[in-house]
Amino acid sequence: MTDHTWGVLSDQAISAAGVVYFLALLCALVEWSAWLSSAKASVAEKELVGAGAPTDSADSADSVGSAAGLADAARERRAELFGRLSVLLTGIAVLCHLVALVGRGMAADPNRVPWGNMYEFTISGSFVVAAAYVVLYRRLKLAWMAPWVLGFVVVVLMLAVVGLYEPVAPLTEALNSYWLVIHVVAAIIATGGFTLGGIASAAYLFKARFPDATILARVPDLGTLDRISYRIHAFAFPIWTFGVLISGPIWAHDAWGSYWNWDPKEVWAFITWVVYAGYLHARATAGWKGKKAATVALIGVATLWFNFVGINYFSSTSQHSYAAPAGPVDEQVEITVPVGV
Questions:
Q1: CA 237 distance to own-chain centroid
Q2: What is the pLDDT of residues 122-138, one digit of tens each?
Q3: Cα dihedral sign for 291, 296, 298, 299?
Q4: Chain mean position to CA 196
Q5: Which domain holds residue 330?
Q6: What total number of domains does the chain contain?
């Protein structure tokens, strides 16, 4: 296959992934709707029984109960069917997403990892979020998270394709280093983990604020949400530490001759590290759980995504300006430093 063919394959695969993710999202919403209908029916039945609603006879009561049971069974079957279909489609979309990443790297001459600009980093980060969801689906029982994760991935891919797309180009000299693989892999994995943890924390706050909301009936109890969030953050934090405080400065020294340059992206990456360090430290020493911990986690994910997206648009001094405008390679803004921190 030629470089052009690989590039076309990558573009087609990312489009296919977006479509399949969207179909998976629709299935997840149908599943969620079925569970909501079942929850509402259960609440209505309890209220009816609690009110002591009269019945004409025992036979009529049995008939009503039988009809309600059949309706509940039908809703459960529908929810289970669309839930399985959503998981299957998500797996297919993740495979298409992976093909898009491989094709993007193979389209460059010479072949390279697909992390040379913000478009590529964005589709890589969203891939990790979706892949981590699939991997942890059974272990952490994340079926309830499907609409949140799939909605996030669909929106991110849409923004990447519409607003961040750039033609395939060779890596600049500063990025053509083995540290690119080490540093950016750590950053991408940690970003995916922190995003999943942030979704769990957001769900916790919604559940705590609206405990009786029927729409949140399928979301796990607060204790489970708190544990899920903590486990994911505890996994992602050491990876982020390695990427931000170890591999990033080493690569910076290799590229610039200095471990720390007070670049805006470096500063915000460190701020993100401090927030998550505070989150884990407060949980371990002060016993912070629940709303306080969830709030700190959301602050952390906000700093993470501001560092990832915002700095590239709001800072004119950052040397991490890898979101160069598309155009001929010799007219693009020079990329001079590592991209992941």
A1: 15
A2: 999 899 999 999 999 99
A3: positive
A4: 5
A5: 171-341
A6: 2
